[in-house]
Amino acid sequence: MDVIQKAFWFLVAIGILVPLHEWGHYRVARACGVKVLRFSIGFGRVLWRRVGRDGTEFTLSALPLGGYVRMLDERDGVVAPHEREQAFNQRPLRQRAAIVAAGPLANWVLAIVLFAAVAWLGSEVPKAVLGTPPAGSLAERAGLLSGDAVKAVSADGQDWQDVTSLADLQSAVARAQALGEPIYLSAVAPGGHSARSLRLDTDQLAGRAPDARLFSDIGLAPLGEPLIRQVVPGGAGEKAGLVAGDRVLTIDGQRVPDVAFLRDAIRHARDGDQPRPMAWRVERGGQVVELTATPRLVEEGGQRVARLEVSVGSPPERVFVSYGLFDGLWRGVEQSWDMAATTVRLLGRMLVGEASVKNLSGPLTIADYAGQSAQAGLSPFLDFLAKISLSLAVLNLLPLPMLDGGHLMYHLFEGLSGRPVSEWWQRQLQRAGALILMLMMALALSNDVARFAGWH
């Protein structure tokens, strides 16, 4: 998918989520009797405007990365005596707090509905059936074997949550790693009738950036047949005599049970800084063919790994997963709450240096995910929208000046002390909040650039 298409779907997402956020502020403000002067999507030069029946000016501005609702307020200028009752600062504290909280709440409710819609629509997803764990990975040390089906996960080994797909499992494991906690898996061997509980020590990888090397070190690979799917012309695999459709039987006399084992064997086929030739036996057209495959060494994640320049593996076994009306809605509530709690805890761990700041993503990564999810279909795009909507809700509720959460802190102080935060303190806090937000945005953008440049 090209850059223009990704930018288009990114703008589609922004065009849904930002107006909804501002609509939350607008509707509750009007319900509380506050006069809204402007409802703007975007910042900067106004490209389009219309005045509503209630006198609100609706505008579309040149820079579409956000929006705002400007309300009548005596702190911003002179208010006519007959309009004083409609000024934001004249409304009771509980109403002002409700108006501020309405924007993030609208995003949160949308996330619940979208997560529920994905559950209602259902989709075909890979089963949580695992291939051979890479040597030395957390999965291997935990005792996972080829063909193990993970049925449930737990943070403490007591309270279990069902796993319906490989995506569920990977999401739970990634969350545990980001938070620096272990995770327990309930796994059933092929043909087995009883589950065994295993501990995956994801806490040992705390603070690591979410990259390909991290996921390899965790070692949760889907089960698939050890097939050669595609051979790059002129690559090491073609030079070895491999052709698409070959089924790999053994490597150096060792049976190859699945594609995960095959990938790991290729990856580690080197002796120091030199590639190591491998003796392969493959099945081709009902006959066994023996050949020698010598990989090429490439740089990946700061280390040299072996590559045969072939695509391998059959598609993993899939299952159709869907939910009824109430189960789907409850799943939406659970997903949104779990994601919000994880995000807050992760931000806290990043603040104290216990989690990598590389977990922060900026607009380039979001645009990339928007394009990929739109290309994958309706359900993946709705899931993407739900996650971004919830992220906007959580971000705006952070207790930082300039964000809704910062204004809610002002109202909390006023409720506890009986007096508002002074204008002098508000100015100082606004400056500090602006600086923190600029630093966060710069860090997120630098992470984006590093990801696309291959530095992460």
UniProtKB/TrEMBL annotation:
The chain crosses the membrane at residues 97-121. Residues 218-259 form the PDZ domain. One of its GO terms (cellular component) is membrane. CDD domains: cpPDZ_EcRseP-like (cd23081), S2P-M50_PDZ_RseP-like (cd06163). Pfam families: PDZ_6, Peptidase_M50. It comes from the Bacteria. It is found in: Membrane. It is a multi-pass membrane protein. Its EC number is 3.4.24.-. The keyword Hydrolase applies. InterPro entries: PDZ, PDZ_6, PDZ_sf, Pept_M50_Zn, Peptidase_M50. GO terms for molecular function: metal ion binding; metalloendopeptidase activity. GO terms for biological process: proteolysis. Keywords: Hydrolase, Membrane, Metal-binding, Metalloprotease, Protease, Transmembrane, Transmembrane helix, Zinc. Belongs to the peptidase M50B family. This is Zinc metalloprotease. It comes from Roseateles puraquae.
